[in-house]
């Protein structure tokens, strides 16, 4: 392929000329090593994708890219047997619909990114459907999930849970379900799940007393508002007079599950179970737990929930939260507004008569001329 415009060419000089057959093998090897090093050290980003898609290897993709550029329909085998109209080039990247094509070298790295938080096949596939595509993406996801030791070590037979139907919540943070998890590495976790959006919140706590519970709930209310209903089990934190008084003062209806029947609080229960499995799968050290927790929450909040068919982020904010995966998809360059930042709000010429607001003196305005 031909190198792009002058500006782009300068930016990608070190990598883009991989395509040029005139380059010596030594330079090629060096450039490739440089790409891989950058890839390992940094995030996946657009320029890396672009360069690897254009790599000199005789792949279908190169023929397809050429075909798309000149508007020629290529052989079926050179477009993965997919209708060519589904493909396009955006900022030098091959796209299938909204998904960016991932070249073989980057697939493992992308799979790992999709598997952040060790969520299962269906969640990974639904994430992939929003961002990336390659001919064997579904199979690779299934293989990765099946072969992941961490996932396998905590896999359980599904537990049958007696269904308990709560009335449908109609908006986010109207009804929340709370529960505790732990101890894990000497830490406890306070888990809150919103019934409407399934938005999870997990706070690391030092103990499970009523004081701590109320503190964490106050923190939650500041961010998401006071709910109408809190659902919990019959733990001592929730049956204490202090907690009863707390919910009364906040005008919250407190519902407790049936005794010895924790499944009533299914929403939180299920998330706690998922969360415990993730923690076990992590095998991380105590100092890394908070960081790993952030990753789990981020992945969960962004992933389509099987019950709602939407991600918690979508239901709470009406948009998908950005993550590293978003770096894969090319976006239009941000345009600088017609009114540049340098432009002053008001312009004066020399010797122009002006009035200045005086905030200290007796008279409101001071008059003069510009010098
Ligand atoms: Zn896993």
TrEMBL record:
Name of this protein: RNA-directed DNA polymerase
Top-level taxon of the source organism: Eukaryota
Pfam family, one: rve
EC number(s) reported in the record: 2.7.7.49
Residues annotated as domain Integrase catalytic: 168-320
PANTHER family assigned to the protein according to its UniProt record, in alphabetical order: PROTEIN CBG26694 (PTHR37984), PROTEIN NYNRIN-LIKE (PTHR37984:SF5)
Lineage: Eukaryota, Metazoa, Ecdysozoa, Arthropoda, Hexapoda
InterPro entries linked to this entry: Integrase_cat-core, Integrase_H2C2, Retrovirus_Pol_polyprotein, RNaseH-like_sf, RNaseH_sf
PROSITE patterns registered for this protein in UniProt: INTEGRASE (PS50994)
SUPFAM superfamilies, sorted: Ribonuclease H-like
């Amino acid at each position: 392929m031909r190198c792009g415009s002058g500006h782009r060419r300068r930016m990608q000089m070190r990598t883009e000329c991989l395509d040029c057959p005139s380059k010596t093998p030594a330079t090629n090897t060096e450039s490739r090593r440089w790409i891989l090093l950058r890839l390992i050290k940094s995030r996946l980003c657009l320029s890396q994708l672009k360069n690897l898609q254009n790599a000199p290897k005789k792949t279908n993709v190169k023929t397809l890219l050429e075909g798309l550029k000149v508007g020629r329909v290529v052989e079926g085998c050179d477009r993965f047997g997919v209708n060519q109209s589904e493909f396009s080039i955006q900022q030098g990247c091959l796209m299938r619909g909204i998904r960016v094509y991932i070249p073989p070298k980057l697939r493992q790295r992308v799979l790992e990114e999709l598997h952040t938080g060790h969520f299962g096949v269906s969640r990974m596939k639904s994430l992939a459907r929003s961002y990336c595509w390659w001919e064997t993406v579904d199979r690779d996801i299934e293989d990765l999930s099946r072969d992941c030791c961490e996932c396998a070590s905590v896999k359980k037979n599904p537990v049958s849970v007696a269904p308990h139907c709560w009335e449908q919540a109609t908006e986010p943070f109207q009804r929340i379900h709370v529960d505790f998890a732990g101890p894990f590495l000497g830490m406890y976790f306070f888990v809150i799940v919103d019934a409407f959006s399934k938005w999870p919140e997990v706070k690391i706590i030092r103990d499970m007393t009523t004081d701590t519970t109320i503190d964490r709930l106050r923190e939650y209310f500041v961010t998401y508002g006071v709910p109408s209903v809190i659902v919990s089990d019959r733990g001592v934190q929730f049956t204490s007079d202090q907690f009863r008084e707390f919910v009364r003062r906040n005008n919250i209806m407190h519902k407790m599950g049936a005794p010895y029947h924790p499944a009533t609080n299914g929403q939180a229960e299920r998330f706690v179970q998922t969360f415990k499995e993730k923690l076990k799968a992590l095998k991380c050290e105590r100092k890394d737990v908070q960081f790993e927790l952030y990753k789990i929450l981020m992945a969960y909040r962004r992933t389509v929930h099987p019950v709602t068919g939407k991600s918690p982020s979508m239901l709470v904010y009406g948009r998908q939260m950005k993550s590293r995966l978003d770096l894969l998809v090319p976006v239009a360059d941000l345009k600088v507004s017609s009114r540049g930042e340098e432009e002053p709000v008001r312009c004066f010429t020399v010797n122009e008569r002006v009035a200045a607001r005086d905030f200290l003196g007796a008279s409101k305005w001071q008059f003069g001329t510009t010098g």
